[in-house]
Amino acid sequence: MPGVPKGLAEHRLRVAPKVKPVKEHLQRSAVQKRKAISEEVARLLAAEFIREIYHSEWLANVFMVPKKDDSLRMCIDFKHINRACPKDHFPLPRIDQIVDSTAGCERLSFLDAYSGYHQIRLYGPDEIKTSFITPFGCFCYVTMPFGLKNAGATFMRMIQKCLLTQISRNVEPYMDDIVVKSRKGSDLLADLAETFANLRRYDIKLNPSKSDAAFAELKALLSTQLVLAAPISKEPLLLYIAATGKVVSTMLNGSGAGVVLVSPRGDKLRYVLQIHFDSSNNEAEYEALLYGLHMAISLGVRHLMVYGDSDLVVNQVMKEWDVRSPAMTGYCNAVRKLEKKFEGLELHHIP
């Protein structure tokens, strides 16, 4: 991997001259860990992230950390060399501020730098100071590894130089992750193109495998049919209705209403409908109720319990409140006509 230009970023350790080097002895490893170490060393050598060395004043041991999938990750214990290095006070981003800055954005795109830290080369004379010992020999890093003091500051400095004109406007970097934020959905492609152009200018590589995995998951969700079960006779279904002025990614104009049918076994059918006329919240709630009742009738449902968040609609249908508005009278009469097609229909208010 060629890495980013040295003029953009190069990591220096700046070890205090009076510090005495520490050379650790090889620690024993179990067979399983030895195999994992061998595979990781081979991978790092092939990628030219490390090189073999024969003499070094600094030597650190490796230790294996289990991942979520029970595989092992090889890490280097750089505690001695880190103690000898002064702290880089470059400010690192605050995750809460990044989250706040994305509020109101219609589109967010998440990018991951491929082997992020390894895209930055180490300062030549400092390479030997990152030496580590394994059962298969001694090696040192050519690129900046994880675990080194100030590695995060060096990486963030590089990213800020690369995306200087975009940060806070349409990009928020956090270590080796980059969030491209688009205030409007129509700006998404332009924002991504600008980001890719800046990253390409400095030869910063992204990790396509994570994007591929997300795309495959989305494709599977879109192409997999829902498992629907026929309703059991005399078994009541639950109908949840709600109205809102906006339904995310479902409509462009008008009010929206959501309907969820739930069987006693937990099977769910979700529907969202768009109302193409100016309507009050109660009118939208009635529209959702009527749609849900028609849907339940088409499924052969005979017993139905309805839960809605409109106190007025629930109490008018259940005859607890009088219907005084002509518009509401028409809706209420339509519901009572459909009510006759059920053996049991109950409405309950959800605060």
Outline the structure in words.
The chain is an alpha+beta fold and 351 residues long. It has two domains: 31-208, HIV Type 1 Reverse Transcriptase, Chain A, domain 1 (Roll), CATH 3.10.10.10; 237-349, 2-Layer Sandwich (Nucleotidyltransferase, domain 5), CATH 3.30.420.10. The chain has helices at 31-46, 79-83, 95-101, 151-162, 188-201, 208-223, 281-298, 311-317, 326-339; strands at residues 50-53, 60-66, 72-76, 107-112, 132-134, 137-141, 171-174, 177-182, 237-244, 255-262, 268-275, 303-308, 344-349. A five-stranded mixed β-sheet has the order 1-6-5-2-3, with helices on one face. The radius of gyration is 31 Å and the shape is elongated.
Secondary structure layout:
Elements lengths: L30 H16 L3 E4 L6 E7 L5 E5 L2 H5 L11 H7 L5 E6 L19 E3 L2 E5 L9 H12 L8 E4 L2 E6 L5 H14 L6 H16 L13 E8 L10 E8 L5 E8 L5 H18 L4 E6 L2 H7 L8 H14 L4 E6 L2
Parallel strand pairs: 2-5, 9-12, 12-13
Antiparallel strand pairs: 1-6, 2-3, 4-8, 5-6, 7-8, 9-10, 10-11
GO molecular function, one term: RNA-DNA hybrid ribonuclease activity
InterPro entries: DNA/RNA_pol_sf, Rev_trsase/Diguanyl_cyclase, RNA-dir_DNA_polymerase, RNaseH_domain, RNaseH_sf, RT_dom
Pfam family, one: RVT_3
| Termini separation | 59 Å
CATH class descriptor of the largest domain: Alpha Beta
Q: What gross morphology would you assign? A: elongated
CATH architecture of the largest domain: Roll
Instruction: Please trace the helix and strand order, writing H or E for each element.
Output: HEEEHHEEEHEEHHEEEHEHHE
Radius of gyration: 31 Å
Unreliable runs, pLDDT <50, ≥5 residues? 243-256
Counted by DSSP, the helix tally is 9
Q: What is the SS-derived class?
A: alpha+beta
Domain unit count:
2
> At the fourth CATH level, what is the homologous superfamily of the largest domain?
HIV Type 1 Reverse Transcriptase, subunit A, domain 1
How are the strands of the biggest sheet laid out side by side? 1-6-5-2-3
Indicate the proportion of strand residues: 15-25%
